[in-house]
Write a structure and sequence with these properties.
Nucleoside Triphosphate Pyrophosphohydrolase, 3-stranded mixed sheet, iron-sulfur, alpha+beta, single chain, 375 residues, disordered C terminus, metal-binding, disordered N terminus, globular, Endonuclease III, domain 1, DNA damage, 4 iron, 4 sulfur cluster binding
């Protein structure tokens, strides 16, 4: 039997990708499209930076509304720098990864104070700003300033590992992927090339069922030639997420106000508002209600973080008492303006939807739930 001749693949040409991008670039509220960029329209670094921070660990679909709301409220960097931090945190609520919001505010202040309101245009200076790491610095340098920076995100990793059939699993493959991306990047139009790679990964070279027949590099892709494109990038198996448990206490005043407190700045959900509760641990910690009351169970709420899955038991009670130190009563009609992360909004919603009649005077006391409120 005669062995079949090996398949010869063409080298991926950046010009083919840029030509595809010129025709098919997504219209995004933070982007200067290639036709406008070709006639001299310059991207606004503030919009590029804001979008890149929001897009970290978040989808384009989820970001669009937040981006437009931020711009409507704080149209210039100086406006954001001067805004109260609580307002910024409240506007960010629901986007997740809340350290980004704290760093966003700190970065705006630093650029306003130390750089005259103008972002620096090189990667090293950008990386010195709060919340800007290697990827974000490269993206801002390339997209906002057309600097020759190599931008490698999840889309780029997927494209490059398929083009070259990179067998090394992620995250170990990251240095190899960077070298291959550097070799692929053209000397001109670095900003458009970076965005073209993002668009190719988001619309054509997708994680599942990639539309290889529409790809400008279909004749250069080793994985497509072998019919194994969906198996890249290779990934090291992740350990199963551990489960943590805790109790959240939703105290509701007779006028509908809800008791809230502020989480510490450092740590998970840092600086955000929350209802009082226990620590989160592998074994449910002992009860620790914030005020003496007739606490009753209102169900459970589950939420998955990057490194663990959380199961919260929700306890609720009707309470008319001064707020403990460090806490405050948030009016019912003002909850939407509080910096409540999605987990806490789900927790409050569970309590509000399950408000039954308070236990009668003959109800048996419940152990570990605090002392009954005196009349």
């Amino acid at each position: 039997m005669t062995a079949s001749a090996p398949i010869t693949l063409a080298r991926p040409d950046p010009a083919d990708l840029l030509a595809w991008y010129d025709r098919h670039a997504r219209r995004l509220p933070w982007r200067v499209p290639p036709d406008e960029r070709a006639v001299g329209v310059v991207p606004d670094p503030y919009r590029v930076w804001l979008s890149e921070i929001m897009l970290q660990q978040t989808t384009v679909a989820a970001v669009k509304g937040y981006f437009e709301a931020f711009l409507a409220r704080w149209p210039r960097l100086e406006d954001l720098a001067a805004a109260p931090r609580d307002d910024v945190m409240a506007a960010w609520a629901g986007l997740g990864y809340y350290s980004r919001a704290r760093n966003l505010k700190a970065c705006a202040e630093m650029v306003a104070e130390r750089h005259g309101g103008r972002f620096p245009d090189d990667e090293a200076a950008l990386r010195a700003l709060p919340g800007i790491g290697a990827y974000t610095a490269a993206a801002i340098a390339a997209i906002a300033f057309d600097r020759p920076a190599v931008v490698v995100d999840g889309n780029v990793e997927r494209i490059v590992t398929r083009l070259h059939a990179v067998e090394t699993p992620l995250p170990e493959a990251k240095p190899e992927i960077r070298r291959l991306t550097e070799a692929l990047a053209p000397p001109t139009r670095p900003g458009d090339f970076a965005q073209a790679m993002m668009d190719l990964g988001a619309t054509i070279c997708t994680p599942k069922r990639p539309a290889c027949g529409l790809c400008p590099w279909q004749g250069s892709c080793a994985a497509r030639a072998a019919g194994t494109q969906e198996s890249y990038p290779r990934k090291t198996a992740k350990p199963e997420r551990p489960v943590r448990r805790g109790t959240a206490y939703v105290a509701i005043r007779s006028d509908g106000a809800v008791l809230l407190r502020r989480r510490p700045d450092k740590g998970l959900l840092g600086g955000m508002a929350e209802v009082p509760g226990t620590e989160w641990a592998a074994t449910a910690p002992p009860a620790d209600p914030p005020l003496p009351a007739d606490w009753r169970r209102a169900g459970t709420v589950e939420h998955t973080f990057t490194h663990f899955h959380l199961i919260l038991t929700v306890e609720t009670a009707s309470v008319d008492a001064p707020a403990p130190a460090g806490a405050w009563w948030a009016p019912a009609d003002g909850l939407a303006d509080e910096a409540l992360p999605s987990l806490m909004r789900k927790t409050v919603a569970a309590a509000l939807s399950d408000r039954g009649p308070a236990p009668g005077p003959d109800a048996a006391p419940r152990r570990g739930r605090g002392r009954p409120r005196k009349s």
